[in-house]
Each structure stands twice: as structure tokens, then as C-alpha cells.
Prior knowledge:
The complex is a heterodimer.
Chain A: H1 2-5, H2 11-20, E1 21-30, E2 35-41, E3 46-51, E4 55-59, E5 65-69, E6 76-81, E7 87-92, E8 96-105, E9 108-118, E10 132-137, E11 143-148, E12 153-157, E13 162-163, H3 171-175, E14 191-196, E15 203-208, E16 212-217, E17 222-228, E18 233-238, E19 244-249, E20 254-258, E21 270-272, E22 283-289, E23 297-302, H4 306-309, E24 313-319, E25 322-328, E26 332-338, E27 352-357, E28 361-365, E29 373-374, E30 387-393, H5 398-411, E31 426-427, E32 437-442, E33 446-451, E34 458-464, E35 469-470, E36 490-492, E37 507-512, E38 518-523, E39 527-534, E40 538-540, E41 543-548, E42 565-566, E43 571-573, E44 576-586, E45 593-597, E46 602-606, E47 610-615, E48 620-626, H6 633-637, H7 639-671, H8 674-694, E49 698-701, E50 714-722, E51 731-738, E52 742-749, E53 762-770, E54 777-783, E55 811-816, E56 819-824, E57 830-835, H9 837-840, E58 844-853, E59 861-869, E60 873-878, E61 884-889, H10 896-901, E62 903-904, E63 909-915, E64 918-925, E65 934-935, E66 940-941, E67 947-948, H11 950-959
Parallel strand pairs in A: 25-36, 41-44
Antiparallel strand pairs in A: 1-64, 2-3, 3-4, 4-5, 6-7, 7-8, 8-9, 10-11, 11-12, 12-13, 14-15, 15-16, 16-17, 18-19, 19-20, 20-21, 22-23, 23-24, 24-25, 26-27, 27-28, 28-29, 30-32, 31-65, 32-33, 33-34, 35-42, 37-38, 38-39, 39-44, 40-43, 45-46, 46-47, 47-48, 50-51, 51-52, 52-53, 54-55, 55-56, 56-57, ...
Helix pairs in contact in A: 7-8
Chain B: H1 15-25, E1 33-38, E2 44-47, H2 50-59, E3 66-70, H3 83-86, H4 90-95, E4 118-121, E5 131-136, E6 146-157, E7 160-172, H5 177-181, E8 189-193, E9 196-197, H6 203-212, E10 216-222, H7 234-240, H8 252-266, E11 271-274, E12 279-281, H9 292-306, H10 311-326
Antiparallel strand pairs in B: 1-2, 1-3, 4-5, 5-10, 6-7, 7-8, 8-9, 8-10, 11-12
Helix pairs in contact in B: 8-9
Amino acid sequence: MRRFLRPGHDPVRERLKRDLFQFNKTVEHGFPHQPSALGYSPFLRLMAIGTRSGAIKLYGAPGVEFMGLHEENNTVMQIHFIPDQCQLVTLLDDNSLHFWSLKQHGGASELREEHRFTLKGPPGSPPSATQVTAVLPHSSREVLYLGTESGSIFVVELPSFRVLEDRTISPEAVLQRIPEDNCSRRSCELVEALREHPKNPDQILIGYSRGLIVLWDLQNNKATHHFLGSQQLENLYWQRDGSKFISCHYDGSYTQWPVSSDNRQPEPLENTVPYGPFPCKAISKIYWQTTKNGLPYIIFQGGMPRASYGDRHSISVIHGSQQTAFDFTSRVIDFFIIFSSDPAAEFDDPSALVVLAEEELVVIDLKSAGWPAVHPPYLASLHCSAITCSHHVSNIPLKLWERIINAGSKQNIHYSSMPWPIDGGTNIAPDPPQRDLLLTGHEDGTVRFWDASGVCLHLLYKLSTVRVFLTDADPNDNMNTLGEDEWPPLRKVGTFDPYSDDPRLGIQKIFLCKYSGYLAVAGTAGQVLVMELNDEDAEHMVDHAEADLLQDQEGYRWKGHEKLKTRDGPVRFEAGFQPFVLVQCQPPAVVTSLALHSEWKLVAFGTSHGFGLFDHQQKRLVFVKCTLHPSDQLALEGPLSRVKSLKKSLRQSFRRIRRSRVSSRKRRGGGGNASEVQEANAKFDQDALQEMELAPVQRKIEARSAEDSFTGFVRTLYFADTFLRDSSRHCPSLWAGTNGGTVYAFCLRVPPAERRMDEPVRAEQAKEIQLMHRAPVVGILVLDGRSTPLPEPLEVAHDLSKSPDMQGSHQLLVVSEEQFKVFTLPKVSSKLKLKLTALEGCRVRKVTVANFGSCKTDDYSENDLAVLTNLGDIQIISLPFLKLQIRYPCIRKEDVSGIASCVFTKYGQGFYLISPSEFERFSLSTKWLVEPRCIVDMPEVTSNNHVHKKSGTENAARKS
Amino acid sequence: EFRRFSLERSKPGKFEEFYGLLQHVHKIPNVDVLVGYTDIHGDLLPINNDDNYHKAVSTANPLLRIFIQRKEDADYSAFGTDTMTRKKNVLSNVLRPDNHKKKPHIVISLPQDFRPVSSIIDVDILPETHRRVRLYKYGTDKPLGFYIRDGSSVRVTPHGLEKVPGIFISRLVPGGLAQSTGLLAVNDEVLEVNGIEVSGKSLDQVTDMMIANSRNLIITVRPANQRNNVVRNSRTSGSSGQSTESSLPSSTPNILGSLLQGEEESDEEDIIIEDSGEPQQIPKAAPTSESIESLSQIELLHESTQNGFLPSSEMNLHHSAGSISMEYEVPDPGCKSLEEEGTIITL
């Protein structure tokens, strides 16, 4: 008997659960939050990005990615690949060095941290003596040169990190060979750059911060040349043949220096301030790339005129008469050039410029005319405008998939056709099982369609709803179209643009029917747009309809934002999803729920005032229902009134503070002597402290009542063909659940297809259920006679689902934030319930039906509820018996935005935001797992350092 | 008016019959009256059920003086110990209640007019230092009225005394249910909510649990003031054998489990309005076979008798609550003030 009461005692079920459920965080999509360092291995053709939280991520060919995390969670300052090895070294801001390697394990490569090391000076030396500022992995792969703040260069052995003390290059040793009238000890403070001679591994170039540059001979342990720069040094770059090098400086200049074998004191060949003559900002990094035609590419970061363009984040490319300053919307972290890595090649022949900015990765094709950008297959900036909502659609039919890609490709014509240049490693993950779309709604009124099938989250198509509306910003007013002779020749690149013209444009709800290609999108100002996929550009009118959700409620005034103004006349839309009808909710409060039934051609929408049903075939409002409680003043007046009260309370508290200051000052004036004042102050502090102790954080325990605020807020809408009135006839129905625990059911009469345009759709309220615990209703679901959730509209018509069982009796599942309840239909009587909050103290935040397949047998699968709670736990609850199957901790409970952003897929996967720009992907299923699996082969290295790219050619062959 | 009639002492019959007889002899068939008698000590005592009626008849020596008052203008203060001797002329008091008009009295009526607001339960299974309080919330007329906060308490662990985080009552709202029971006080440590231990749970979690259970809240506290504890004798410690332990007895989860099940049953029911008609409570679907619920119901009965409850009396109470809720069936379907729960036990 007890067994029935307690879950988890049936061994057969326990075994089955192991075959069905498993929790994994599989991959992070998007752009790393707060990147801080960039590295590139031309040998492996892999790029590495370090972040301020100590993560390091490696990217190669699409699908090839690795992630590592430094235990210390400190900012990664520098990343250096060991030449011709699957190894890299990172420097953190706590001055620790970490040695990572890629090793094959179980058929796939893995990134592992192998050693760590912190440079220690002799006892009593200042910390600056060992503060690492420059790192040079030597091409011998045996040692690492570490330049420090004190000017000393330490040599450590790899991979053991043993300090070779006898090889330390001290400032004293450097100064021995330099005439004293030019330099002093201070010239050798802080090593800014260390560069190995490209042809002679025994020579390294040492650049000191104050401008002194020394060519050091490692064999003889002496300086062979020194170069006296007059400006503070930023960086150094060797030309390919080793005859010259470039130094760039704090004043925005760069200098070319010759390296000759004679002993003459070298004089600079050329000293240029590219954006002079007015004071310029520093050039922090420079490349000098040779080409066959003789004209070099000079590529540098910064150097903009300080006064007028000092705030720009730019990288300039100069090639003969062509010059462009690529202008980034966020700070440039670092950049590198992809060029010919074959040491036997005579020229650099740069092919691409890769720039890591704070908020995005931009790759510029240097081979094609006009230097177009390359569309990155990964590292997409999800947050180019802030994400406001997400919607996932599994298993997209091929036809729709192709049409979306087609629409997207027309938007991407300005991108370069160059294949992705960072193509190291091989993706060995199996092909994704199905085509999945992740749709993200953004603050600027756009919806982005992402290919979420595999490891690389890739932008397919971007939809903008802005065209329908009149906004303050004129779309033709492009700030970046500059004239021909504009100087500097700035060109805006990248997509990161966090500034929204109008917050009312923000997308709040998305609903896509994958079979019909109908899309409904709803926004912040009560706008609901219904769209259809069109493969061609078109110019047409958008029909307008208003839905007055307040109906007969009178005497209330909406104090929130106004509705968006619409454009009159026909609007030109590009190929893709084109809106054909706009339903405007009144008052224009944010749309809180949305449902689309493509078979019945109906769209339902809800706000904090009520909900409505619109027939988008006849373009007619079927009905509206006001859900407001008469006492809910807050909902009626809109969000502004709340802001006002907040403002008021802020003002009051400021006033209080001011008053207390005044009174204490008065007290001071009256008191006279200092000790008395101190005493008074101490007493004042003590009182304040006591008051704080007396009023700890406390929570009121009170039953929810009908008068609570926002009870009318419509949380969920659901269409179902079920038995609403009697058990003999089923009919279309619309269900709505509110924040106050009310469920409304409307019986719909949809005319048959042949008379669809002639007869109106009718609706009649059939039921109203008031949950006594009054918790917000977050999910409504009807189970058919076999206790299977009803299929999506058109799913049966496309032979993708069994038709629902209409013989047995249907059941209604109502999920509130606190409980799961199953009721019978058509007569509503409660059958089962599972209390979550009463027992565990957690509340339901997200709930979806997910299909779980067994990893052991192909023919078994079942539907369960996947639930995310406010504590960040994920629970799987069985259907129809509502038994808790398993629970996994997933998101930290403090991570409110992570929990709010979570979406589940229909096959037991999910996504949530771990930062504004990154989705974490997780899987609850043993069967559907999308995770990176890749191999990075060591290209064969011959003794004379000549690289024979075995795997590279293999890769190419495989790709072709 | 005075009447004199005879009753057979050996076969007094039921109170209902006697009440009918009184109405008959006074020819007041439709008037509600209060019935009282004077016992041998001269106290005026009420007759309102079989037991005190039989008692009254047995004390007749040989006459039994019965007093009848109209219910509307009854003077309840007339009942009680020493009433007959204290008040020299009780009779006149009773017959002329207008003498007392200047001092209105609280109407204390019959048991079925009462409803419980709180109770101390499971006294025999809990350690003496703990108290389990049940708060009955009806409608919205009175707030539960308390606040909780984080704090820390000292526990005896194998490693010695340890400070552990705990949840405490921080404030009682004047006039609230919690305050009016007198069973909860500021700084009482909350140990369990409806049988679930709160240790390891955050303040917000415990808040959500309490609100979710607010219709039938059972909280186990360690009162801050331990002086008011009932000192139990060996009987109770003998029955559980664990009353002196500072931690909860290990057997409680079982009992609590069934308690919860019981609470499931007595829990509120949702309301449905069909076709814009009358609001009704949603019935429980008839169990098709030997369902879990029926099992737990049997258990409830079993456990509650063990805990010293009288299931029948509790049922009575709930019936009375049910009768109150009937008043809330508002004929106007547009009216949204569907406040009431129906706590009908379907045993």
C-alpha cells in the first residue's frame, strides 16, 4: 500500500527512468560574456578567447569547439599557443600562468589544464619584479620568455615551468652594451613586447615601455643592436624576412626600423602618424603584411585623432591608396591576421582580419574588393539588441527550412563569400537529428531565426517589425554614410547595436506554426502582428484592428505608454515573413500571452486586462473578455503609476536622509566641543544599527485574495478540440489562465472550410474555473482518451502525429505556479493533483510537455512534463499520473534572468541565458543530445620546422 | 408563565423530544428557546443536548425547575456556577432581561455555531519543547497576520553545540488570526510547515510553502518562551518514549505523511461556473478502482484516532463550515466575489 503512495520504489520504472532521463549541460551558444584575451594558432587554425571570468574557449571549423575554465575565475589577460603544438599558455590577472593541452581521449579531443605556475622573485623583491607583462613562446617549443614590469626577462622551461635562472636577461646585462648617454636604468623598466626573429630563432627583439628596443642574441647572451625610440612603445612587429620591424607608439605613430648586420647605430626608416597632425591616441598593435604585388597591408588598432574621434574603437587597414578605419560599436579587445603560414612562402598574403570586440567577433575578408565582412558560423552576438523573449520550434519541415534560409540569404548578400577562415579541427559529432529553430525576440522589434539544430547557433534570418510602425528615428537617416573625402575613412562594422529607437517595439511573445508558415508576434505596446511567409518582396497594406479589452469597465484611465503609430498606405516588405494584419490591444499594455491556431486561422492574445480572439482569415475580432478585478487599480492604470509610486518613495527616502543630515549638523552646531559631537555621532550610528537589527528581512504570511494586484493578467492561452459541453460532441475551444488562478474556457464555432469566409466564427463562454489556491495559471493542456496531449494544429494533417483519441474521455491539466491538477471533461471534476509549493516551497516558472525516447529501445517513448522552478531546479513529472520522476539542479536560484529566459524543446532539451549574449544548452534526454565532439590532429612537423599539413589537406578533401 | 408537568424519570427520552414537549406545553411551536434548570447547588445550567438533559432529569428531587427563555432576548450570563445564589432574584432576572440591557453580553451559543480557529495538535508525539499549531483560515475576514524572518538557533549535534540557520516568527499583526490564538509568539522558531521540515530552505521558500498552505496551515514551532509548556507526565512520555529528546522523533515523518494526506482531503475545492450559470464547487471525480486516495483516507481515519482526534466531531465541524459556505453561492454569475472554500470531508 505504501508503495503507491511513495514514488521511486518500482524497480522496473526505476530502470526505465535511467533509460529515459539524463541531465547534461552540453554547449554554450553565442558570444562569450566579457571577453578579455584572444589567441590564434596558424598551425592548428584554432582561435582562443579568454574571458574575465576565467573561461577559455577554443574555436575552429564550425562544430569544433572546446571550453576550459580556470579554477581561480580570474581574468584571462593573454593567450599564447605554443608554436606547432596542441598546447597553449594563458596568463591571468593574478600573474599566474597556466599550461593547457588538447589531447585525444575516447576518440575525441579534450582541452585540459596540465600545469600552473606563478613566477617568484628572490625574497624581499617587490611584486613588480615578477609581474609578467609580455610572454613569448619560443619556436623551439622548449622555453617561454616572460617579460616583467621590472624589465627582467625570465626564461622558463616547458611544460614543467622550471625557471632557468642562468638565462634570465636582466636590465643590467642589456645596458652593458648601450652607451650611457642615451639610456639609463629607467629605460629598461617594463617589458612591453617580446618578438622572436622570424628567420633566426636565436635572436629576440625586446621592447621596453619607454621606447628602447633591443635585439638580443640568445646564443651569446648579449644585445647586438639597440634602437632608440623617442615615444612610449606600445607594440612591435617583425616583417616576414626579418630585415625590418615596426614599432607602434602611444602618440599614434609607428616607426619602421632596419636591421642590418653592420654595427652602425640604426636610424628609423620611416616615422608616420597616420591620423596626424593633431594629437592622436595610441596605436596599440600593428601588423605589416607583405604581398606579391609589393604593396604591403598595414593594419593597426587605434591611432585616431584624440579630440574628434578619440572615443572610436577602430582598426585601420592601409593597402596602397586604399584605407579604411573599421569602426566597432564596442571596445576592441584584440585582433589577428590570417596569412600564409607556410614558412617557405615569400609573402604574407593576408586573407582575413579577425577582430574580437567586447560584444562581438568581426571577420573582414581582405582578399575581396571592398573588404566585406565574413558571416561567422558561430559566436553570434545574441544580444546585438537585448533579447526580450525566446521561442523554440522542433523538427522544422524541410520546405519551411529552405524558405527561411532563402529569405535569410537575400539579407546576407553584403557578406563575403569567403569560406570561414578559421577551420582547424574536425567535427566528428553525428549530424543533428532534426532541424530546430530558436526564435529570439529583441528590444528593437526584431525577431531572429537561429539554426539551433547543432553545436553552432547560426543566424538564418532576421525579421523586423519596425516597418509597420512610424518611429521617431527615420530609417533613411543613416549616420554612417560618409562622403568620399571624409577623413578618417571610418566604416561601421558589426551588428552589435544595443540602442533601441523605441522600447515599445520590443517583442514579447512569438508563436510560429511550422506547417503553415504563419507567425504571430506580439510586443510591448499591445501590438499583435500576424505574418505569412512570402518568398518575394512585396508591397501591401497591413490591415488594422483594435481590441478594446476593457469593454464595459468604466472610469479607468490608462496611464502607461501610448500605442505605436502605424504607417499609412502600403508598406514595402522584403522576402520572408510579411505582416498582413495588426491587432492593437487597448489599453496598449504589454502582451503577456499569445496562441495561434493555423488550421482554424485564429489568433488569441492576452494582456494584464483581458484576452481576445481574432479571426485572421476574415480579419475580424471574434470576442474580447475582460479579466480585470474591479479593485485592481494598478493593472488599469498601467506600469507608470507604479513607477510614480517608486519615484515618490525614492524622493521620500532622500528627503529623510537629507533631514537626518540636517538634524545631525544642527546637533553638532549646538554641541560645540568635539567629543560631544563624536559621542552624538556614535549614538546616532548605534541607533541606526539597532534599527537595522530590529527590522531584518521579513516576509508576510498571508493568504492570496481576489483583491491582490494583477489577478487579471492573462498568463496562458491554449487552443484545443475537445469535449467542453457534453461527452458526445467535441468542438474547438479556447482556454485562458490568469494570474489570479482563474481558467476561462470558450466554446468556438469555426465554419467549415468551404464556408469559412461566409460565416463568422462564434464564441461562447462555457466554463470558468476558479482555483481556490489562486496561484497564477502557467499552463493548460488537454489530454486525449489515451492520456496523450492533443497534437498541434495541422500536425495530424501532415501525417506527423496520430490523430487524437476522441473515444475515451478527455482530461484537462491545469498547471499553476503552485500545483498541477487534472480535471475530467466535459464535466469538470478534480481527479488528481500534485502540490509543489506546499510541499517543497518552490514555484513553477516554466512548463512544457516533452517527449522522451528510450536510449535502449527505439520503439519506446513517453510524454512527460518538463518543469523549471523558481529555485532553478528542473523536474520531470509523469503524465497523466503527475508523479515526480526526477529532479536536477540546473540554474542558480539567484540567476533570475537565467530562469526567466529558459525555453524547453519538445524533445527534452532546453536553453537559458547565462549572460546577455550566451545561451547554455542543456539536455534532459538520453536520446537527444547536441554537444561538441571533435578532433584536432597534430599536423606532422619535420625537423627543419617545415609544416606539412596532413590533416589540413584531409580536412579539405572531406569538405569538398 | 408557569407550567407543571410530569416526566418519567427512568425513561426521559431524547432532548429533542423534551424540547418539542416544552414547545407544546407552552404553545410556542415555532419559537426558539433556551432551556435551563437549577441543579442541587442552585446553579442555573443549560439543557441543550441529551447528556445534560439526562443529567438534569437525574438530579430532580423530585421537582426539576426548568427555565425557558426566548432565544433572541436570552441573558446568557444567567448561566453558570453560583448563579442562583449570587443573584438573589435570578428568576426576575431571567424573566425580565431588560434589567441587563445596559451591559450587553457576548453571545456564546451552541457548539454547532462555533468553528475552530486554531488547535494544538500531536501533543503526544512531539517533544515537550515543540508545539504544533493548526490555524484554520476561513474566507478573508481575518488575516493570518504574521511575519517570518531568517535567524540562527543553537542545536546539539555530535560535534557539540552548533549555530544553524533557522526561520523565526518576526511579527504578529494585531488582531490577526495568529495573534488571536495566543499559540504563536514573536521569536518562536518555525521547524516545520505542514509536516515538511524547513531546515535547509530559504526564507522565500518557507514563505511560499506557508502561503500555499494558508487555508490549512500547520506549523511546528519551538516557542521562544518555554515556561508555558505543559509539563507532561509519564503517560505521554510512555506513549511515545521520545518526548524529552530535543530533535524530532524519527517516527514523525510517517505520521506527518498521513497528516498531509488528510489535509489533501480536507483541502479547499475549486469552483466552476458552467455556461455562465451558478458557481459550484468542483466535485471529486469518483475513483474508478481502488485508488490511492481511498487508501489514504483509511489511513487518515486510523491515524487521527491515534492522535486523539474524534473523526466524527471533526466531521461535524467541517459540516458546519460547509453550511457557512452555502451562503456564498451568489446567484449573480457576474459577481466575482467567490470567496469561500468548502471544507467538506468526504470520509
